[in-house]
Write a structure and sequence with these properties.
Distance between the termini: 46 Å
Strand order of the largest sheet: 2-1-5-3-4
Radius of gyration: 14 Å
Order of helices and strands: HEEHEEHE
Pfam families: PB1
Organism: Papilio xuthus (Asian swallowtail butterfly)
Structural class: alpha+beta
Number of helices: 3
Oligomer: single chain
Shape: globular
Largest sheet: 5 strands, mixed
Protein name: Protein kinase C iota type-like isoform X2
């Protein structure tokens, strides 16, 4: 068995998440029943946010519209539509929150 098949088999039941942040595209896999806290920690790790960095997560719906993920209900809805539409991946955009020092 080739390594790429092993990777696919390991994540056969997981949600493929394409994360776009600061011009980079990163792929990760999450469980269908992930909590908002676990998802937030995954985004902090993959985007390399500082632990106290304030940021926004948005997923892109089937019409191409960005939808904020800030509650468990919003995350659950994103995952429900991902499954309903049989999408190949869930696209998430991370963005640092603006403050007086940061220009966004």
């Amino acid at each position: 068995m080739m390594p790429t098949q092993l990777v696919q088999d390991n994540h056969a039941n997981d949600v493929r998440v394409k994360t776009v942040y600061s011009g980079d595209v990163m792929i990760t896999y999450i469980k269908h029943n992930i909590t908002l806290e676990e998802f937030t920690q995954e985004m902090i790790a993959i985007c390399r946010f500082l632990p106290d960095q304030v940021f926004t997560m948005k997923w892109v719906d089937e019409e191409g519209d960005p939808c904020t993920i800030s509650t468990q209900l919003e995350l659950d809805e994103a995952l429900r539509l991902y499954e309903l539409n049989r999408d190949s991946e869930l696209t998430v955009h991370g963005k640092e929150a603006c403050n007086l020092v940061t220009t966004c």
